[in-house]
Amino acid sequence: MPSAEITFTEFGPAGEPASAARVVAKVGVCSAGSKNTVYAFDVPSPVAKALGEGPLTEATAQAVRGSRQRTLAVPIEASIPGVLGPLTQSGPGPALLLSGDPTDAAAVRVRITKSGPQGVGRFRVSISGTAAGAQVVPRFGTELVIPSRKAAEVTGTRDLSRLGYAKPAVVRGDKDLGASGLYGPGGLLDGKNIEAKIHGAEVSCVLEAPKDGAALLAQLANAFGSCVFSLDVGARLVWTSKAIGKAATIELLGGSALVVLGLVVGLKQGEAGDLDGTTLDLQEDTGEAQTVEFKDPPADPAAVVAVLGKANNVAASLVAPASKLRLASKTIGEGSSLAILGGSAIELLGLPKATAKGREADHKIPGVGVTIQFPAAAFVKDTEYAFACNAPGFSIEAVMEAINKLVHVKADFRLLHVVGELADAAETRALAEALDTKIAELEALKRPIVAILGAPLGETDEALAEAFEGFVSRRVCVCARGAWLRGGTLQGSFLRSQSWAAAYKAAAVRFSSDLGNHDDGPLKEVDALPVDEGLATVKLRAARFTVMDTSGGNVYFARGLTMADERSRYRDLNVARVMIEAYLAAQPVLDNEINNDPPLNEDGTLETNTAGAIDRAVTNALANALMPDHASAVRARVIRTDNIFETNLLRARMTVVPRGQIYGVSAELGPGLLTDNEEEGG
Q1: For residue 3, is pLDDT > 90?
Q2: Looking at the structure, do residues 398 and 514 belong to the same domain, yes or no?
Q3: How far apart are CA 172 and CA 178, in angstroms?
């Protein structure tokens, strides 16, 4: 579709519109989130859940908190994994073992706070700093017990005491066997017989003048060995099978003793339990899968444990007080694994279909993705270990893909912050050049933005100044050096690129305000500044880098700059941002003139009233967007001398008069008398 063309020219600064003027889109690496997906955050709390760990996570959470503005985040692919620095040790004791690819940059310290081996000694970890005057010292977290090696284990969620268990077959008599005349020679029981089937097998007995109830029970138990006999409180006979479950049966067939004992002919069967005949499939370590079958019905939770404990290299136990089942490999350490594969008993036992892994005596450090392992030895109090975590790297191509995605989904933003730094100054310049080219393409699509990026923290000032010599761009702001900034989701201060603070401040205050405007207050998220531009040997501000300095003990940006030529009006970042908003305000008004048919004068020039109406429409759009907060004056004027009849082209010139920008303050001070005729500036 045809649209009006607006060209950026050297006129001066102006101010901030509403909408997305202060929305920053951040691109960088993180441990979670979908690559090249645009996430929007209005509060910091959901950031960690969506993005995991990493520079993008921390920069996004910090920006939302510090700017109180919506922040967009686009995870990109890490082309270079994070790198662990060498481990140093101060003090006696065994060395720690390190593993894992770092997810973020940090200076890690581990301090032993109590001597002892695994499970006894204690330690604290620091991944960040805390301000102590002008210095930053390690900020140690909560004291932790040195962990022990553990086996893989799985714990169920069901109380096994609440399951239904198998019960025996029970026959009960209804005669009082404590009555007289039953026992001894010639008693009613003497010579009487019983015919029965126990679990289907026929058994018979003849009572031989039992002298009392105890003797009666003994003769019955001797004859029917698979059963137990007792008398209840009413001295009535209770005949119980030792076996349980539905297979347990007592069938009374007849005999002269039945009437005397209060028994009747018939069949009694045991009750089935919930677990009877069920199976559990599991696999321990790297062995073959095993199937445990509850072929013999368990009578209680202890019997369940006994059955499962027969599995190869598996220990079973109950977790008090709720009688929940715990299965564990008998192998200890990281080589231990236990997989619950399935089976008909899995739900009854409350077990998940999952695989558990054993662990060494290790501790995963939150925020950096690195695990420290404590060997089996005695650690010594006050020994300290230190190592550096270097964040994952990314490619310039990944940044370009993220920008394409932002444009594709029509994300509304004005600032792009590349979170994280490339390897050296030369690669950083290449990124800046690629961003300048890409943003020029976006301007052709009516999507002007400004990019903010940081230089490598380890690069020297001299190398940076040399690498960027000759590079000119009004579309890119390059921040040099680092500063100790407060964490986004993590506690404490971290040495980060100054671009992080530039991006969140650009979103926090009116965009017509210079990043170094002291009236906005000092940089609240900065706890310490390693290099003060005012004291630095190499003045990077003169090389058009955006850097920090101090004033009155507070930290500010020396000035917010783009990489435009020093003579350019666009050298100030706030000027570039204001002109973007002027562009966006005027664009729809001028687009309205496409294919219009205004009245012309005889010489083909635009008729005066029509030209004035266009002037007023564009000027009003600029004024509504920029005044009074961001510009001192605005004007738009159609070029009256163009022969539109011949050229079919309407041209206009728009001018934005910026608010004044004070780079220095000078005043005279001296003793004397106040006189009535002195005037300001006199």
Answers
A1: no
A2: yes
A3: 15
One domain for residues 378 and 410: no
Task: Evaluate whether residue 316 is within a structural domain.
Answer: yes
N- to C-terminal Cα separation, the chain: 59
Residues 100 and 240 in one domain: no
User: Can you tell me which residue has the tokens 């017989």?
Assistant: 193
Six token digits for residue 534? 């005012």
DSSP-assigned letter for residue 660: P
d(CA 180, CA 186): 12
CB-CB contact of 527 with 486 (8 Å): yes
Among 219, 247, 269, which residue terminates a domain?
269
State the CATH number of the domain containing residue 461. 3.40.50.11780
- pLDDT at residue 11, rounded to an integer: 36
Has residue 682 been placed in a domain?
Answer: no
Number of domains in the chain: 5
Judged by average pLDDT, the poorest of 3-12, 428-437, 597-606, 626-635 is: 3-12
Evaluate whether residue 670 is within a structural domain.
no
CATH of the domain at 210: 2.60.40
Q: Can you read off the two tokens belonging to residue 315?
A: 């220990």
In a shared domain, residues 263 and 284: no
Tell me whether the omega of the peptide bond preceding residue 658 falls within 30 degrees of 0, making it cis: no
pTM of the model: 0.76
Domain assignment of residue 296, given as a range: 153-163+275-357
Do residues 435 and 400 touch, judged by C-beta distance below 8 A? no
Q: Got the DSSP string for 1-58? A: ---------S-------STTTT-EEEEE--SSS-TT--EEESSSTTHHHHH-SSHHHH
| Whether 145 contacts 249, CB under 8 Å | no
For residue range 569-597, list pLDDT tens digits in order. Answer: 899 999 999 999 999 999 998 888 889 89
Cβ contact 611:599 at 8 Å: no
609 & 639 share domain: yes
Q: Degrees (nearest 5) of the Cα angle 46, 51, 57?
A: 85
Same domain, 348 and 460: no
Asked whether the beta carbons of 636 and 618 are under 8 A apart, the reply is yes
Whether residue 454 is found in the same domain as residue 415: yes
Q: Which of 369, 387, 405 is the last residue of a domain?
A: 387
Query: Which among 632, 636, 630, 628 is positioned nearest to 587, based on CA atoms?
Result: 636
Q: What is the DSSP string of 583-640?
A: HHHHHHHHHTTTT----B-TTSPBPHHHHHHHHHHHHHHHHHHHTTTTEEEEEEEE-T
- The H-or-E segment that residue 430 falls in is helix 425-444
Beta strands in 455-508 (DSSP E): 476-479, 482-486, 493-497
Amino acid at site 453:
L
455 and 368 in one domain? no
Tokens of 675: 């006189």
Q: Running DSSP on this structure, what letter comes out for residue 543?
A: G
| Calpha distance 86→388 (Å, rounded) | 7
Strand order in the sheet with 168-172: 168-172, 237-244, 227-231
pLDDT of residue 16: 35
Taken as a whole, the chain contains a residue count of 682
Q: What is the pLDDT of residues 485-541, one digit of tens each?
A: 999 999 999 999 999 999 999 999 999 999 999 999 999 899 999 999 999 999 999
pLDDT tens-place string over residues 377-436: 999 999 999 999 999 999 999 999 999 999 999 999 999 999 999 999 999 999 999 999
Tell me, yes or no, whether 15 lies in a domain.
no
Comparing CA positions, the residue from 252, 189, 250, 185 lying closest to residue 217 is 189
